[in-house]
Amino acid sequence: MCDKYVIGYSISEKKRQKFNWNDFYSICESEGFLLKMIDINSDLESQGPFHVFIHKLTDKFAHAENGDQNAKAIISRINEYFCQHPEIIVIDSLDNIKILINRYKSYEILQEHLQLNDVFTPRFIEIKSKSNIDNMSMLKMAGIKFPFICKPLVAQGSNDAHKMMVIFNEQGLNDCLPPCVAQEFINHNAILYKIYIVGEHFHVVERPSFKNFYEEDCTILNTIFFRSHDISKSDSRSKWSILSEEDIPLTVKPKHEILEKIVKKITELFGLLLVGVDVVIENHTGKYAIIDVNIFPGYDSYPNFFEQLITCIKKLSIGQKKSQQHSKIYMLKKCLSDDLDSGFESDEKKKYSIKTNK
Ligand SMILES: Nc1ncnc2c1ncn2[C@@H]1O[C@H](COP(=O)(O)OP(=O)(O)O)[C@@H](O)[C@H]1O
Ligand SMILES: [Mg+2]
């Protein structure tokens, strides 16, 4: 058996290549950890023990959400394994991840619990029906005006999860593909801020995004069909990102302290260590709108991502050891007080107290 801390991971080949995952092996090694790939399709018990489990299982979750029995079986097997080994540090909790697979649920949490000055999440509704009359009345009730963005309900798992539309008028409602979420369009001067979070640390990058749309656009424009990659990749050059001359002076830079507050709130709310947030700054109010929260985003632009990750893991494992010690001390105190109650100390308890005090 190995006396090193074992970090098990299950990350797709594509993501591993993108991250240059081999570097992580040597960083783990130099920090006293052993990195080991996990095969989630076979028995986990025989591959263990693991002290830490890092995974990107979002696609499996999305497939399970869409009814895939094999994906459901894998997830329930992993869940069961974690239940049998509550000492494993899981990055990140399956229950917390599940929420973010569904855009409606994650927006709902944001809307209910965000409560930060100058930060909001745009109005949204879930579109379930194909009836324009029903949908129009729901949009009105929620106070969502045209244009709005229509996003698939399931946020991960296929290319279709990122196929979206900007809908400008009632006629465009025919383009919605339920189940989806309609989210108010926020004018933000074509700049998106992507926040990459690793525990308490974060890194922000600026990306292109949609130009501002005004009332008159709603009468002249037809639905814009797009994939998020077409608009917001660092090299995206969409015609929809070109700002008009008058809008350029409206651009403002984000305040670090507000981004810090957003990061703290998001990690607390969703209970995740590896998470990304997409933020835009509304042009006429200067308020920060959270438009998307992503599980284990692409950290390729994050400086020293692996070093930061291992620092977090070390912190968590020290915290865990301390809390285990606490519970041992607590148990010891309890034993001692039980002894006082019972008036004698068993050999077993003596042994235990010696072990704990080492
Ligand atoms: N409410 C919004 N208002 C304005 N633009 C938006 C809004 N929501 C999304 N966008 C634009 O659409 C892109 C994709 O939306 P997002 O929810 O981030 O999808 P994905 O999950 O595919 O990243 C964003 O990067 C941004 O450019
Ligand atoms: Mg996004």
Describe the 3D structure.
The protein is of the alpha/beta class. It is built from 12 helices and 14 strands. The chain has helices spanning 13-19, 22-30, 58-65, 69-84, 94-101, 103-113, 132-142, 215-220, 228-232, 256-270, 305-342, 347-357; strands at residues 5-10, 33-37, 52-55, 89-91, 119-120, 124-127, 148-152, 163-167, 180-184, 191-198, 201-208, 224-227, 274-281, 288-295. The strands form 3 sheets. It has a 5-stranded mixed sheet with strand order 5-14-13-10-11. It has a 5-stranded antiparallel sheet with strand order 6-9-7-8-12, sandwiched between helices. The protein has a 4-stranded parallel sheet with strand order 2-1-3-4, with helices on one face. Helix 3 crosses helix 4 (69-84). The protein is globular, with a radius of gyration of 24 Å. Residues 327-358 have low confidence and may be disordered. It binds adenosine-5'-diphosphate (ADP) and magnesium ion. Magnesium ion binds next to loops. Mg(2+) 2 binds at residues 292, 294. Belongs to the ITPK1 family. InterPro entries: ATP-grasp, Inositol_tetrakis-P_1-kinase, InsP(3)kin_ATP-grasp, ITPK1_N. Monomer.
What is the secondary structure topology, with strand pairs?
Blueprint lengths: L4 E6 L2 H7 L2 H9 L2 E5 L14 E4 L2 H8 L3 H16 L4 E3 L2 H8 L1 H11 L5 E2 L3 E4 L4 H11 L5 E5 L10 E5 L12 E5 L6 E8 L2 E8 L6 H6 L3 E4 H5 L23 H15 L3 E8 L6 E8 L9 H38 L4 H11 L1
Parallel strand pairs: 1-2, 1-3, 3-4, 5-14
Antiparallel strand pairs: 6-9, 7-8, 7-9, 8-12, 10-11, 10-13, 13-14
Helix pairs in contact: 3-4, 11-12
Bound molecules: adenosine-5'-diphosphate and magnesium ion (MG).
